[in-house]
Amino acid sequence: MSATTPTTVTGASASRLRMPTTTTWVDVAVLTVLSSLAIAGFEPAFGPYHYLLAGVGGLVIGTLVALACAVFPLSALQTVAIAFAAYLLVGPALTMPSESLGGVIPTLTSLAGQLQGAVFGWSDIVTLQTPVEAPPYIAVVPYFATFMVSVVSVSIACRWLPRAKRTPLRASVLLIPLLALYLAGILIGTAAPFYAGVRGITFAGVALVWLGWRRTSPSVMSLSADSAARRRKLAGVAVVLLGAIAIGAAGGILFAPSPLARFVLRQEITPPFDPLQYPSPLSGFRNFTKKLATTKLFTVAGLQSGQKIRMVTLDSYDGQVWSMASPETRTSGSGGFELLGRNIPEPSLFTAGGSGKLTFTMDGYNDVWLPNAEYPSTLDFDRHTGVDPTTTVRVNTVTGTTAVIGGVTRGLEYSVGLLLPSIPSDKDLGKIPAANLEMPPVTNVPDVVAAKAEEYAGTAKTTIQQLRNI
């Protein structure tokens, strides 16, 4: 029996079953290994392990669907229908368990998320700050990608390859969807890749060895081949593969370009939220202290004595008015507004000394800037108030400023988890130099500002004392 000829299982109850050959099983195993290497490329975008359930789950489900539809066998139209049903029914448990009943049973929300994530998740993910956690359907991206690649590639391996004489060119068709998956992980990632050299060389090595094995004559691949010769061939292949991986990985480390030269889509796309499209918060503050001086703006539960409510942090000055940096002038010291969802990462140069929680209820306040305090770590909105933090809330992770596109409305209720800063003494700060933060450009500043700063700093010996004097 040729290794490339599909085996037909005889019997009255299984006359139509077409079981994969040994060669096909090897093809599927190689496809699984290469897909796993490609899936690892999603790590920079999603963070450690956060993508594995969706990515690996999509790979497993897609492979099982393709194998089942090839074994029975089903037509292309039937395969598409079954794959679509499996994608919708199994996906919510892997990608949106919080939106599913018991974390498993699909709901209308989770089913809609499977479709929304497959279409819009790709554009959303390159505008979000990494690691990406929101919107909820964002996990559909690795699930959809691996599911589609596994269904297509395994179907080709089981249905199309065995129909004609195998050649490296025919076998290489299977690599097209895998290369697309590998490339997707690069493009939606960050400038800091995930073991790029090791993964790339391993991917290429496995693919080349497999293509070489694929072009071997049927007699050599026969199950009756001499076992000693087969072991020698396998040992030789293993030595070549491991050598290629070692040399390639070392070369990749030594000659890899800098992260700044790495092309990723998120560095080419400007985040959509621009704070300069809205009136300066200072004008709103004047309105609060004059026209709305006696109006109840909002109430806060959990506020401690001496704790201050913050509306916004202004980090840009043009010589006339303080405002916030636009996407074009944002720097590491000012940050930008990102779509984050519930969890907000801790900023740099911040040492937490405690935590707290405040609950806000909006009344006469209707600006776009969301009041909070200290530095927010979590945002939880009442589901009945109409604000979806996964789509309409933007957070500046450097300054802690939060905005709601369209503004807040009366009755909006939300809770803010807070990180309370640890305040060191001046003695401790005297040993620490001032941080070198890149801030947005400041224009039209009178010379007297610098002169007065030097005058006020005086002859203080430590940086902290100079700042205190100023």
Task: Write up this protein.
The structure is a single chain. By secondary structure, the chain is an alpha+beta fold. It folds into 3 domains: about 5-265, no CATH class; about 275-425, no CATH class; about 430-470, no CATH class. It has 15 helices and 13 strands. It has helices at about 20-40, 45, 50-70, 75-95, 110-125, 140-160, 170, 175-185, 195-215, 220, 225-255, 280-290, 425-430, 445-455, 465-470, and strands spanning about 5-10, 20, 300, 310, 315, 320-325, 335-340, 350-360, 370-375, 375-380, 395, 400-405, 415-420. The protein has a 4-stranded antiparallel sheet with strand order 3-8-13-10, with no helix packed on it. The termini are far apart.
Key phrases:
15 helices
Number of helices: 15
Q: Could you tell me the strand content as a percent range?
A: 5-15%
Q: Could you name the ranges where pLDDT drops below 50 across 5 or more consecutive residues?
A: 1-14, 217-224
Task: State Rg.
Answer: 29 Å
End-to-end separation in angstroms reads 89 Å
How many domains?
3
Structural class: alpha+beta
Average pLDDT value?
Answer: 80
Q: What spatial form do the alpha-carbon principal axes imply? A: elongated
Strand order of the largest sheet: 3-8-13-10
Listing every helix as H and every strand as E from the N terminus to the C terminus, the arrangement reads EEHHHHHHHHHHHHEEEEEEEEEEEHHH
Secondary structure: number of strands: 13
Q: Tell me the helix content.
A: 40-55%
How many strands, which pairing sense, and closed or not: the largest β-sheet? Answer: 4 strands, antiparallel
